[in-house]
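Re: the request from the purification team.
They wanted to know what the chain is likely to look like in 3D before they choose a buffer screen. I agreed to run a prediction and write the result into the notebook, where they can find it.
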Amino acid sequence: MRVYNSIDEFEPIQGAVVTTGTFDGVHIGHNTIINRLKEVARRINGETVLLTFFPHPRKVLQPNMDLYLLNTQEEKIKLLEAAGIDHLIIHPFTMEFSRLKSLDFVRDILVNKMATKKLVIGYDHHFGRNRQGSFDHLKEYGPLYGFDVEEIPAKDIENVAVSSTKIRSALAEGDVNTANTYLGHEYTLTGEVVKGNKIGNQLGFPTANIHIKEDYKLIPADGAYAAKAIIKGVEHYGMMNIGIRPTVDGSKRVIEIHLFDFNEVVYGETVQLKLVEHLRPEKKFDSVELLKEQLQRDNINAKNIFGLL
C-alpha cells in the first residue's frame, strides 16, 4: 500500500475505485465498503484508493468537543494495509478545506486530482461545506464528470447499526466484547514501555507501564482486562490494568500490563496491547492484602480466558 500525506502527492491512476471518509476504527462496516471497493477494482482491473483526513474533521470544526479516536494514525494505516487498500491518501483537514463546496470537492478533488472511475461510499455519507453533499448529489454529478457511484447500505449486527460512535461508547463502559465484535478485531493500544514506580513488583505481579503519546487516543474504562501484548513481533498473554490504583494511593491514570511467564527488560520498546476481555472495574480495597488476593483471582481468570489453565 502506498501512503500519501496529501491529495497533492497523489498521481492519478487508471481505474481508480475510490472511497472517502474518516474510517476511525476500521470496523466491520468500513470493511464492507473496502471489500466492495476491492471487488469493483478487480472487475475493472483498477486499483483501490481511500481518501481520509487528519485531524478528524470534528476535532477541527468543534475544537471544544472531547472526541477521542479509536485509532492513532499508525494503527489506522496498518489496519487499512491489512484490509488490502492499494493507495491511502491522508489529507490535512483544515477550516479552509472544510469550506470547499460539494461540487468543488467532486470536480476538483475526486475528478481532477484523483481521476475517479467509480466512487463507493457508506450509507448516509455527506461531504463538502456544512455536509451539503449527499448520495443524491453524487448521482447527479457522476454522469456529468464521468464516474459511477454506489452507496453501501447500513451494516447491521442484530439490527444495531455499526458505527465508530457506538464502539467508543462501548469502550467507555469497558464493554470490550461488544467493541471487538463491532470492530471485527481486538481493540488495540500502542505505546512505549516506560519506567514505573515498581508497585507491581511489591504486589507480586511486576508490570510494564505503557505510555501512549497520542492524547486523542481513546483509553477504555478503568479496570482490569485480559490482554495480549505484541513485543518485538512476539505475542504474549497477560492481565492489564487501567486506572489510578487507588489502593496504593495512586493519583495518575496509568496503563500497565503483567505478562505471564515473562521477565525481559523492555524499556523503550513499542508495544501493541490487544484487549480481549474486561475482568472487573477498578476499585479501592481496604488493604494491600485484599488487593493481592484480587490480583490472584484476576490472574486465574485471565489465564482461563487464554486457555492456560
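For the purification team: Residues 2-161 form a domain with the Rossmann fold fold (CATH 3.40.50.620).
Please add any questions underneath this entry.
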